[in-house]
């Protein structure tokens, strides 16, 4: 059972991993804005004390934190692999994933944006642009067809949702041709299409693809 919110980039990462690995699941929507945020309910807090999505019930345990979930899926259901066999490439994948997951995404998360008030869009744009400047430089050394070489990896699962956030906050993507090229290639893959925020059970009608 995946507890997810259609627009959550962390949830989207996990949905992509589940799709790539062919793991079927039931989706339970958790609306992060309705009723003051359904993630703050006592019921959900018991499931994930951090009161964030995603959370995944699998194999008799409940996991939160998207990368921890993806690592578990990788270790228990290794095909197709999301971490390269080569140790150097594997380190690069983890570096890029961490760059996005720790260095960009939390800074433009809903809880932070609420505190920024009227400056939230400008704040989000600056955080994303700063992270993307570094990421563009890194990818110029690591990228093949995707973030690291020619195989889809955990890094790509983090990239596409972050680009979607950038587009939502109207970040100018002109300075980031490598990021843009990789994202375009990823969005053509079926696993990225079926897991896309515009195609979820809880996607509002006006945002549906």
Automatic annotation (TrEMBL):
<dbReference type="InterPro" id="IPR004046">
    <property type="entry name" value="GST_C"/>
</dbReference>
<feature type="domain" description="GST C-terminal">
    <location>
        <begin position="86"/>
        <end position="205"/>
    </location>
</feature>
<dbReference type="InterPro" id="IPR036282">
    <property type="entry name" value="Glutathione-S-Trfase_C_sf"/>
</dbReference>
<keyword id="KW-0585">Phenylalanine catabolism</keyword>
<dbReference type="InterPro" id="IPR034330">
    <property type="entry name" value="GST_Zeta_C"/>
</dbReference>
<dbReference type="Pfam" id="PF13409">
    <property type="entry name" value="GST_N_2"/>
</dbReference>
<dbReference type="GO" id="GO:0016034">
    <property type="term" value="F:maleylacetoacetate isomerase activity"/>
</dbReference>
<keyword id="KW-0963">Cytoplasm</keyword>
<dbReference type="InterPro" id="IPR010987">
    <property type="entry name" value="Glutathione-S-Trfase_C-like"/>
</dbReference>
<dbReference type="InterPro" id="IPR004045">
    <property type="entry name" value="Glutathione_S-Trfase_N"/>
</dbReference>
<dbReference type="InterPro" id="IPR036249">
    <property type="entry name" value="Thioredoxin-like_sf"/>
</dbReference>
<comment type="similarity">
    <text>Belongs to the GST superfamily. Zeta family.</text>
</comment>
<dbReference type="InterPro" id="IPR005955">
    <property type="entry name" value="GST_Zeta"/>
</dbReference>
<keyword id="KW-0828">Tyrosine catabolism</keyword>
<dbReference type="GO" id="GO:0005739">
    <property type="term" value="C:mitochondrion"/>
</dbReference>
<feature type="domain" description="GST N-terminal">
    <location>
        <begin position="1"/>
        <end position="81"/>
    </location>
</feature>
<comment type="pathway">
    <text>Amino-acid degradation; L-phenylalanine degradation; acetoacetate and fumarate from L-phenylalanine: step 5/6.</text>
</comment>
<dbReference type="GO" id="GO:0006572">
    <property type="term" value="P:L-tyrosine catabolic process"/>
</dbReference>
<keyword id="KW-0808">Transferase</keyword>
<dbReference type="InterPro" id="IPR040079">
    <property type="entry name" value="Glutathione_S-Trfase"/>
</dbReference>
<dbReference type="Pfam" id="PF14497">
    <property type="entry name" value="GST_C_3"/>
</dbReference>
<keyword id="KW-0413">Isomerase</keyword>
<dbReference type="InterPro" id="IPR034333">
    <property type="entry name" value="GST_Zeta_N"/>
</dbReference>
<dbReference type="GO" id="GO:0004364">
    <property type="term" value="F:glutathione transferase activity"/>
</dbReference>
<protein>
    <recommendedName>
        <fullName>Maleylacetoacetate isomerase</fullName>
        <ecNumber>2.5.1.18</ecNumber>
        <ecNumber>5.2.1.2</ecNumber>
    </recommendedName>
</protein>
<dbReference type="GO" id="GO:0006749">
    <property type="term" value="P:glutathione metabolic process"/>
</dbReference>
<dbReference type="GO" id="GO:0006559">
    <property type="term" value="P:L-phenylalanine catabolic process"/>
</dbReference>
């Amino acid at each position: 059972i995946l507890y997810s919110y259609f627009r959550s980039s962390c949830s989207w990462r996990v949905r992509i991993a589940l799709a790539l690995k062919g793991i079927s699941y039931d989706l339970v929507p958790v609306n992060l804005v309705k009723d003051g945020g359904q993630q703050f309910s006592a019921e959900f807090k018991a499931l994930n004390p951090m009161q964030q999505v995603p959370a995944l019930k699998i194999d008799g345990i409940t996991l939160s934190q998207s990368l921890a979930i993806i690592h578990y899926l990788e270790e228990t259901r290794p095909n197709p692999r999301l971490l390269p066999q080569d140790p150097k490439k594997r380190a690069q994948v983890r570096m890029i994933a961490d760059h996005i997951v720790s260095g960009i995404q939390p800074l433009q998360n809903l809880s932070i944006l609420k505190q920024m008030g009227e400056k939230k869009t400008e704040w989000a744009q600056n955080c994303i642009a700063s992270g993307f400047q570094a990421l563009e430089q890194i990818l110029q050394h690591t990228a093949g067809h995707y973030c690291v070489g020619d195989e889809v990896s955990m890094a790509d699962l983090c990239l596409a949702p972050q680009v979607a956030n950038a587009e939502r906050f109207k970040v100018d993507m002109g300075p980031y041709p490598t990021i843009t090229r990789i994202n375009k290639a990823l969005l053509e893959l079926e696993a990225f299409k079926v897991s896309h925020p515009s195609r979820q059970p809880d996607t509002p009608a006006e945002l549906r693809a």
